[in-house]
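Reply to thread "Modeling small-molecule complexes from scratch"

Following up on the discussion above, here's a worked example others can learn from. I took a protein sequence and the SMILES for zinc ion and predicted the complex. Inputs first:
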Amino acid sequence: MNTPAATPAAPSSVTADPQDRANAAPDAVEPGTSTPSQLPDPVSERDRRFMRLAQLAAEDARAAGEVPVGAVLVRGDEVIATGFNHPIGAHDPSAHAEMAALRAGALTLENYRLPGCELYVTLEPCLMCAGAIMHARIARVVYGAHDPKTGACGSVVDAFANAQLNHHTSVVGGVLESECGDALRSFFAERRRASRAARRAAAGETSSADDDSASEGDTPSQST
Ligand SMILES: [Zn+2]
């Protein structure tokens, strides 16, 4: 159901179909076509530090066989919660990294609203997550790679730019973008390799089975 896109023409584009993070496949995009909704400040070392933690959370998703997207919820300099994408394992279409971090953070703080918190996520949030982020009154979202297929921070739609919807959240995109995108690209590349290998193995088994049955069919008459 996923069509690996990866055209060489778009080397730096993000490849995931994140939101179907369960089975997403990469789709190429022209590099630089999507820009962060807002860039109030240059990316700080602080932003990169928390994004690296989100990248670690993404590796937890990869280890679980899920599309590697990770998120970290931060208040001040304190990490309140982390989350990683796991819709397949959870049988839950809403189990994106952001949702996992929001749920865990809200439980930790015992508050369904999280004002003053920042959410770092390795991939541009989708519309569902953008909605949850707004409901939680998150102060700031920082994301890594742009998502040309379902990104709701400017790549496909910009939910946060609608003043009727969003009164609380500022957004910065492209923090450690290439690293975050590379994690997704390597995941899908590996999956395509595995898929090709499986097809070759299946084809090989079939033909060798055919060969074997032919041999078996021939052998008795030759041996007798
Ligand atoms: Zn999402």
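What I'd highlight from this example: The radius of gyration is 22 Å. Confidence is low (pLDDT under 50) at residues 1-19, 23-40, 207-224. Questions welcome below.
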